[in-house]
Design a protein that fits this description.
heterodimer, A: about 300 residues, alpha+beta, two-stranded antiparallel sheet, elongated, B: about 450 residues, alpha/beta, Rossmann fold, 6-stranded mixed β-sheet, 4-stranded antiparallel β-sheet, 14 helices, 17 strands
């Protein structure tokens, strides 16, 4: 009886030792050399794995950073400049600061501006709706309102405003990862410079139809009249295919275009209210879009940033 | 035992309430808007400009590429503009707007009613006529007919199948032409038979159209007695089942051959053409008459004036509806095509196309979708799918964006017939998600195969 137990223990021990040696040799033979810096870089990453950088996740991004000689082509939109500085410190590289970006919804088609002309009864998905037809309003280019962007956002930064039927971006939460830009089948969401004190001016319309048709579908559509382009002292505005576009790198936020726009398609957000003038009513609906009741919050917000 | 396809299918009520209405010619409207994208493939390029005078049957659009087709003016008059106009689903497409003045046809077009039964000997002449007269498949997909009749040299057809199934509920335009113009259809079939060099032509008609079966059978018999060119043309009665008119389903029903995944009918030696296409081929070859009008069924239980109208291409749909007394009050949805595969019309000002087969009015009760509930794994969708797919699975995969698995489960074979959606007791919008996934998967497959060429 005892000899059986002894033999068993001996046999198992010998087997264990043998296998350990084999495993050791195999592990040595097929060792994967991995740069330890990848782990270090990954540690400073936000870990959201959102794919906003263009890589399959934070680790893939870290690997790419380690392998490339400069960080010019790699940028983590979620972590922004701070994270990139840390990454640069780990790798001993230099990093060029990038202006923070934010997702901007370029559509004015609120329920009031853009009347619904037919009923949509299909799956509540912008992608499906876009593949079927032009949408339930007269505008072929505008927001379809099914919230694909909301579903795409990992950071909870986009929500649908039930009053307007349009998505609203929470600029505090938005990391400019670009997931919503990719999710929108109408391509109305754009990543734009966040701007000094979060102030920015943009054309909130992508309708490429001729002025009269565009206006018929939506009272706040860009009609491509070109008044803004003429008014702009910096040459930041171009009108192409009946729709104006403001180059945020050239825009100096003078807001001359906002006052000039006959339909209120140009939005200026997070600015203090304009001095009382006759244009006031034209500007009012514009500011209201940025977020319901955002106006009173406008002032404290930039102050927070300055601190 | 009547034949039908072997897997799946559903039996919707056929509701052919406009079957008894003779084809009536719709008066030409004051203005027509002729779309340049009336066929599958590259849109035609407009070759007229504002101010040009055009005659009926004159070429106004030329094909751009191999899969594309000529577009002809369906009226005579003055071109008012060439520009973007919204189609039935509100998407801007290039249209040529023509103000109608009289009805002067191009020279060389035979507008008489005499039946021409002599089949030209040269297949190339026939194909050229089909191409230059802008004939496209009128079964729904509007694929250019000349391309379909000229398979690659390594593939040979041995049978031509004419699709007279008209399996969609409500539609009766094919039924009416089979009753009113059966001989023309048979001549068209003989022309295509000559081009393909096949010995056998089967005209497949569902059992719910006995009059069409009789009239087509009689026409085939009468013409077979005239000339040997018409030998081998027969009518086959098929069991009623949707989607019998699907190309792959019809081949299965008639000759029991299965087209492989991503394959074409020519791979199994068959070519399928619609009976309306056959009529257009007859007009194009024997009469040199371009495809400028087609039969449109205007129907629906809530619509008082059931009609089958011969409509010039480019007629605004609103004009057709106004001619018949306007949109009925109880109508909630207007559909172009049948209730199973048709497209909802969101823009009634849009113009008809070559392939427009019907304007269908549905009431709220008929069309309203029920709220979606959970899948109970009953398997009805898989049973109904005529392509042998598993819609419940594809739906799950599509909603989670699993493209590789979707491709493995052959989402690209979906023919968008809607049987799954029709049979689902949980009202899950299966087709919506599967169609979206199919589009994406096909894009992925194309991008993978493209660089190899």
């Amino acid at each position: 009886m005892t000899t059986t137990i002894i033999w068993t223990i001996v046999a198992i021990t010998v087997l264990g030792v043998l296998l350990a040696v084999v495993l050791y040799l195999v592990a040595n033979k097929f060792k994967v050399e991995e740069d330890p810096r990848i782990d270090e870089v990954e540690k400073v990453m936000p870990g959201a794995n959102c794919g906003g950088c263009g890589f399959a996740g934070c680790r893939a991004f870290a690997q790419s950073c380690v392998e490339s000689a400069s960080l010019d082509n790699n940028f983590c939109p979620v972590g922004g400049n701070e994270v990139m500085k840390k990454v640069a410190a780990v790798l001993g590289l230099e990093v060029h600061e990038k202006a923070p970006m934010v997702a901007v919804v370029r559509c004015n088609g609120t329920c009031a501006n853009r009347p619904v002309v037919n009923g949509y009864d299909g799956l509540k998905s912008c992608k499906v709706k876009a593949a079927l037809y032009s949408g339930d309003t007269g505008c072929f280019y505008g927001c379809l309102g099914c919230g694909d962007c909301v579903a795409a956002c990992q950071f909870g930064a986009i929500s649908m405003d039930p009053q307007t039927g349009l998505p609203v971006v929470d600029e505090e939460k938005c990391t400019a990862c670009g997931a919503c830009v990719k999710a929108c089948p109408k391509k109305i969401i754009e990543l734009r410079n966040k701007g000094p004190k979060n102030r920015r001016v943009f054309v909130s319309c992508v309708n490429m139809e001729k002025g009269a048709t565009a206006r018929k579908a939506c009272s706040a559509a860009c009609i491509g009249c070109g008044k803004c382009a003429k008014a702009c002292p910096f040459g930041a505005i171009t009108v192409e295919h009946n729709v104006a576009y403001i180059d945020f790198n050239k825009c100096k936020l003078c807001r001359k275009c906002v006052a000039e726009c006959p339909t209120g398609a140009i939005h200026a957000v997070n600015f203090p209210a304009l001095p009382p003038k006759t244009e006031q009513p034209a500007v009012k609906p514009v500011v209201a879009q940025s977020a319901a009741g955002a106006k009173p919050e406008v002032k404290p917000e930039p102050q927070k940033k300055e601190e | 035992m009547k034949k039908t396809f072997s897997i799946g299918g559903v039996h919707p009520d056929d509701k052919k309430i406009s079957a008894g209405c003779r084809i009536e010619t719709l008066p030409v409207p004051k203005t027509v808007y002729i779309s340049m994208a009336q066929h599958l493939g590259g849109p035609a390029k407009a070759v007229v400009a504002a101010g040009d005078k055009v005659k009926t049957g004159q070429v106004i659009g030329e094909p751009t590429g191999f899969i594309s087709a000529y577009v002809h003016s369906s009226v005579s008059g003055t071109v008012k503009s060439v520009g973007l106009r919204k189609d039935i689903v509100g998407i801007p497409v290039v249209h040529v707007e023509i103000e109608v003045e009289g009805d002067e046809w191009m020279e060389g077009i035979d507008t008489s009613d005499t039946l021409v039964t002599d089949i030209p000997q040269d297949p190339k002449f026939i194909v050229d006529r089909i191409k230059s007269n802008g004939v496209v498949g009128l079964g729904g997909a509007t694929f250019p007919t000349n391309v379909k009749l000229c398979p690659p040299p390594d593939k040979k057809a041995d049978i031509l199948i004419l699709n007279g199934a008209e399996c969609e509920p409500y539609l009766t335009s094919d039924y009416r032409i089979m009753i009113e113009k059966p001989r023309q259809i048979v001549v068209g079939a003989a022309l295509m038979k000559r081009v393909l060099g096949v010995g056998r032509v089967v005209i497949g008609i569902e059992e719910n159209k006995p009059e069409a079966i009789a009239s087509m059978g009689e026409a085939a018999k009468a013409l077979a007695a005239v000339s040997p060119d018409y030998s081998g043309i027969e009518v086959m009665t098929l069991k009623k089942k949707y989607p019998q008119g699907g190309e792959k389903q019809l081949i299965d029903a008639v000759v029991h051959r299965q087209v492989k995944s991503m394959g074409l009918p020519i791979d199994v030696g068959a070519v399928v053409q619609n009976v309306a296409t056959s009529l257009a081929v007859y007009d194009a070859v024997q009469k040199n008459r371009p495809l400028i009008d087609n039969t449109v069924t205007v129907t629906g239980e809530c619509f008082p004036k059931q009609s089958n109208l011969l409509v010039r291409v480019g007629t605004p749909i609103s004009y057709i509806i106004d001619y018949l007394g306007g949109v009925p009050e109880t109508a909630a949805k207007v559909v172009s095509g049948g209730p199973m595969m048709g497209k909802a019309i969101s823009n009634l000002d849009a113009a008809t196309l070559k392939g427009t087969s019907s304007v269908l009015f549905l009431t709220e009760a008929q069309t309203k979708r029920q709220p979606e509930t959970n899948c109970i794994r009953c398997g009805k969708c898989a049973e109904a799918c005529p392509m042998g797919l598993e819609p419940f699975l594809l739906n799950k995969l599509a909603r989670n964006g699993m493209m590789d698995e979707l491709e493995q489960n052959a989402v690209q074979d979906c023919i968008e017939c809607g049987c799954c959606l029709y049979s689902c007791p949980a009202y899950i919008p299966l087709l919506d998600t599967i169609r979206m996934a199919k589009g994406e998967v096909i894009k992925i497959i194309r991008s993978r195969t493209a660089p190899k060429k």
